[in-house]
Amino acid sequence: MVSPSTAFAQTSGTVRPDVPVQANTTTAQQAGTSQDQATAPSEADNSPSPAGEATTGDIIVTGLRSSLQRNLDIKRTATGVVDAISAEDIGKFPDSNVAASLQRLPGVSIQRSGARGEPTGITVRGFGGDFNTTLYDGRRISTATGGRQIDFSTVGSDFIGGISVLKTPDVSLASSSIGATVDIQFPKPFDHPGFRAAVSASGSLQDRAGHVVPTIGALVSDTFADDTLGILSSFIYTRRDTDTNRVFVSGWPGNGFAPCQLQGSTATVCAPTNDTTAAPSQVRSLTGWFPQQYGAEQQRVQDERVDGRIALQWHPSNEVMVTLDNNFSRQTLNTDVYGFGVWFSQEALRNVKQDANGTAISFTQAGSPTDFVTAHNRQILQTNQTGLNVKWDVNEKLTVEADGAYAKSWLNPGGVIGSTNGDIGYGGRLGTNLGFDITGDSNKAFPTISNFGPAGDASRWADPTVIGSHVTVNQTQENTDELKQFRGVLTWKEENLTLKAGGQYVDDSFRLLNRSTFTNNFWQAYSGYGAPSGQGGGVSPLPSSLYQGSISLNNFIPGFAGSLPPSVLIYSPQAYQNYLTSLGNPQAQTVPGFNYTGGVNGFTGQFTEAVDPSSILAVREKTWSLFFSAAVEAQVAEMPLHLAFGLRNENTRLSATGQGRQPTSITRSTSDPTLLTIGFSDTQPVSSGSSYSYLLPSLDMRLVVTDKLQLRFDASRTLTRPGLNLLNPVLGIGVGQRVGALSGSGGNPNLKPYLADNFDVAAEWYYQRNSYLAVDFFLKNVSNFIVGGVTRQTVNGVVDPTTGQPASFAISAQVNGPDATVRGVEIAWQQVFGDSGFGFQANATLVNTNKPYDATNISQTGFAVTGLANSANFVGFYDKNGFQIRTALNWRDEYLAGFGQNQNTGAYGAEPTFVNQSFQIDLTSSYDVTKDFSVFGEILNLNNNKQSTHGRFKNQLLDVFDYGRRFTLGARYRF
Questions:
Q1: How do the domains of the chain map onto residue ranges?
Q2: pTM of the prediction?
Q3: Which one, 340, 359, 568, 662, has the greatest CB density within 10 A?
Q4: What count of other Cβ atoms lies within 10 Å of the Cβ of residue 469?
């Protein structure tokens, strides 16, 4: 593990070309000394100096080039395969987002939030999300997101000291990541003895949001009492506002079409059925896919984050160091959404034209309703971690370290309503014979709809006089994750031998529940669109005071083909719900437009949420680990050989408790015939437990062939545990459902971890100072893959009133599945052109698998390795005389993100989600006005890259997000 003191070493002083910065943890004795002494190797260190460099004299290098040299030295001297990013100086991390920095490393790619364009997660060598473990100073961090990965947009980068990405495991740290272990290191007082302070302030502007929002931060550090006590404190407030345009298809379910539905059919009657004894023209015998829902929306996101940190250090003697620290973060996301949507049912489609793959690329649907949707979404993610570390150099050879931490995360604490929704529109006798056409692939076109508007009158598309109330959905996810951990390590160092032994205990408790108006069926209280649509429920017209204007959909996604209706309406979901509430209590009086026949029992006027019993989940996971490692330095044919062997045993016990219930009835709404209501039995607690134990060995060899060239071989076994949210022991069926889209989900508390046997063979050529070329071939054999399949099932014998047959639910569930092999090569090249100030970093990763996705496989248990994509990055820079400019080009090929779509009701299993190829250019620059004061600027997404996704085939668009460019201007001062 690389310490923060290592990351800060030489930030503003001299860099001796013959002294590489070390990549081992700073000892208690070193922690109170100057940085040169703490990081320089002993005279016995036989690490060669870079070829062609003089070993006398000092070279003054600061800023980006200094940071790159530290990163190179960490990579070069690390026992395993490690890439690193160091702060250029205190309070000067290379990027405004941690994940954005990580994507510059070979083998690392990022996932972006479509609505914000912010990097939220990483993929390492094709393994994303839960396959990567993120640590704060060597400790696991809790996360209430529902999985094990953290959201990197919640990590402020302003005062980070450095990041290490361990692609091969350090058994004394963790072996629970098949992708990589990411260790984020924060500064501490004794990293820079004496008084230090840094402040930064900036303003950012997203081109569509149109206003400047601030980021401010401050860090103060001091040591006193003869450098035996130290304190460091930092605070950062960050705000990002983003207006994002989105066109979407909620899902492409697969099922059969009947010949009578096809373009050119002469059938006078068309009633698609699965009954194979019916007339051939009526049997759904043709494999196909259709869009479940199509629409467009603008999302206006306000992202506020507060980060705070305090670290106290006590250095009572040269042998003892005590560190107490606390990390706090709170991210608040407020999103206002304005859009429209149209719903399709496969059996209602006519004039269907399919392409060669079976995708419905053109069709009409009679009576199509149109919905205008608004929502206010609010998400709060808060995390607090407190840790205590004691390090004692017992003697010159033995060091004892004890580390304990407590962390807790909350998703939406304090009674937050996660989403407040208002859905209005027209349908029934105003439903249109809507046309739908696909005009191109998902990376360049979105679908076109035609014959829209009330009864096909496009001029009245958004006419308030015919628009009425529809469904009203409020829902909130509430999670907590509580993490307790302790680690103890004994380190024994001889001249050419280092031994480590110790143990670790981790207790992780995760709780989840969901509240919504689906649970109590209040979402259907005023469904039906009102009198102009000719249906029994709903209120129309709505007060004109609700409408606050509109958003034009003209040129909505620049550069994409396809056409949209003219506009979407702007109105407040809170004001809309307040208006419906003001109509009175339908239980105490007759309220026109209330859905008295839709099973909306107990509604008294307030759209209150109710807890969904099937969402209640409590998981507790306890893991005990023992580890041992030995590192030896030897000679082979007069070539230095660094050899390390490690062994880690992990024993895990898991318990999961949920609330189960069975569906007992299904009723159809008379006011809106697309809506269904499920009745249930009483709930009962359901508990389950499991345990497993694994031995995880590792071997690392580094052979220094010449003073320029070194070779590596690494072998290890690692594991990744299933996401905590996958361990629910009950089957969940939602109360509110739609015709033709019955669905449910089930967890599996008996899931076992993924296991991987990993191999690396690498060659690294350090041909001059601050420059190198490296090639790394890697292979991962992974077993126990967790497969998320969808099967069609009847549940408790309930009957679907729309068919008169036992209801068929699309049930999503997870099981441990097949094995797979992932293999690839990473190529990295860093070149600095002498003292000219110019240089570049370039890397490429080529990866493949023996289990690629097969789009022609329509079985319900299809399987493929997710996340795999070729990628390449290029960073060109100039850094001299206080002026720095850097251009970053990041490319990632198309990849399979996962299985499952927003609407996942098809007959062919879980439909896939692919992310299209992306290419983004970022530009950053800074100028040191004085030694301590600098100004900086940044342009993100200079080329206005869009993010788009598709389903099984390239023309099945799922999402396209246009999140625009972001401009930042700011200043830093340190003293």
A1: 64-253+290-485+514-526+621-861+870-974
A2: 0.86
A3: 568
A4: 27
